[in-house]
Amino acid sequence: MALNVNCNVSDAFYRYKMPKLITKVEGKGNGIKTVIVNMTDIGKALSRPATYPTKFFGCELGAQTQFDVKNERYIVNGDHTSSRLQELLHVFIRKFVLCSECDNPETNMIVKDKKGKENITLRCIACGYSTNVDMRHKLTTFILKNPPNAETTHGATPSKKEKKTKKDKDKDRSSPEANKDKDEDQVIEAPPVNNKKMEEDDDDDWGHVDAEEEKKKRMDELSAGAAKLVMEDDVEKSASERLEIFYNFLKSKKDSCTLKTTGIDKVILAEAERLEVKDKATMILVELLLSENILKEVKEYRLIFLRFTHENSKAQKYLIGGLEQLIGDVYKDSLMPKVAHIFKLFYDIDILEEEVILDWDKKVSKKYVTKEVSQEIHNKASPFITWLKEAEEEEEDDDSDEDDDVEIEYKEGVSEIKTQKITPAGKPSAATNGQDEEDDLDIDDI
Fold this sequence. Notes:
The protein is α+β, with helices and mostly antiparallel strands. It has 18 helices and eleven strands. The chain folds into three domains: about 160 residues, 2-Layer Sandwich (Defensin A-like); about 30 residues, no CATH class; about 160 residues, Serine Threonine Protein Phosphatase 5, Tetratricopeptide repeat (Alpha Horseshoe). It is about 50% helix and about 10% strand. Strands 3-4-6-5 form a four-stranded antiparallel sheet, with helices on one face. The chain has a three-stranded antiparallel sheet with strand order 7-8-9, covered by helices on one side. Helix 11 runs parallel beside helix 14. It is elongated, with a radius of gyration of 32 Å.
C-alpha cells in the first residue's frame, strides 16, 4: 500500500508516494527487537539514506539502533508496532524532508560549515527555498558524522573513479596521487575501530565496515557492551519516566496530525493504562492539547478528556492541577480573566464533576503553582462556585418538595419514569380525559 509522503495531503493522486512501513519483531525478553523490513525502499522514496529515519526512531523512542546496509537490515531495539513507527516517520518527514515554504518533498539535504559552525539545510528543487534544519535534534549529530554524500545507497550513480577502466587504473597505479587517493579510500572503507567512540555511540552503522575481521571485532565489542545494559520494561520504570514516555507518545500523535481520527481516544487511553499513569496523564493532556484558545480546544478534544476523567475523581483533581499551571504559569494574562468560564465549560461538558470542583474550592494549595497565584485563581472562580452552590441548594429544595407530592414508578426494561400526582387522600388524581396524568422524562437529563 502506497502512502502520501506528506500526511497532510489527502489527494489520492498526489504524485509523491512511499511504501507503508513494514516491521517484524524478533527475539524475546531483553533481546527483543523490531526489524524494519522495507526501510531501504522508504529511504529511496524520501531520497534520504535509510539510516537516517532508523536513527530518528531510536532518538525518539530512547532505543538503540543497528544498521547493516549491505544486507538491508535496519533494527530498533524493543517491541514497536508498525503504526507507532509510521507516525514517527511522518514526524521525520516533516523535520528532515519537506520544504517549509511549499511542503514539497523534493529537497536536497546539504551539510555546510559556516564560520566554524556546522549547519544542515534542505534545498527545495521546486521553489528554490532553503530550510534550516533544527540543530537541537539529536539526529543532526548523526547526520553531521554521516553526511548524505558519504552514505552507501543502493542504485547510487558510480563516481568517476569507479567508472575507470582496468587500463586507466593500471596507468594511474604508479602515480603518487593515485596512491594517495587509494590510501584515502582505504580509510573511508575500513576505518579503524575507536573504542572511545564505541562507548559514546554504541549504535553506529555496522554496514560501514567492510573488512570481515574488523566487522567481527566490532560486533564482539558491541555484544559485550550490550550485555552490560539492563533493559527494563516500561512498566518497571519510575513514575516520572513512564510519564515522559506517555508525553512523547501523545506529542507524536499531535505532530502526526492524528489526534482527531476516529478511535484515537481509545488508543491514547490504552497507552496510559499500559504505563499505569491514567490519573496523572490528565496533566499532560492539558499541557499538550490546550493553549490560550482553551474554550475552543477543550470541545475538540472532549472525548479524549472524558476517557480519563469519567467517574475518576483522582484524574479530575490532577486535571485541575494542570489547569492551574496552564492559567497561572503559561497564559496568565489571557486566561486568568476567563477562569470562571473555563471551569463552567469543563463542568457543562461533564469533564469535571460538581463534587470535585467544590472539594478543590475548600483549600488553596501551592502544589502546582505558588500560593498567591492559586489564591488568585480561586478568587476568579468564585462567581462560578457561588452559582454552583446555589444551584445545588435549589435542586435539594426542589427534590424535597417533589418527594412530598410525586410518586415515582420504575418499570423494568423501560428507559422512562412515570410520575403521578398524589392527592391528600393518597390516591392518584384523575386527568381531565379520564386517564392517569403521565410525564416522560429522559434519564440522561436527571
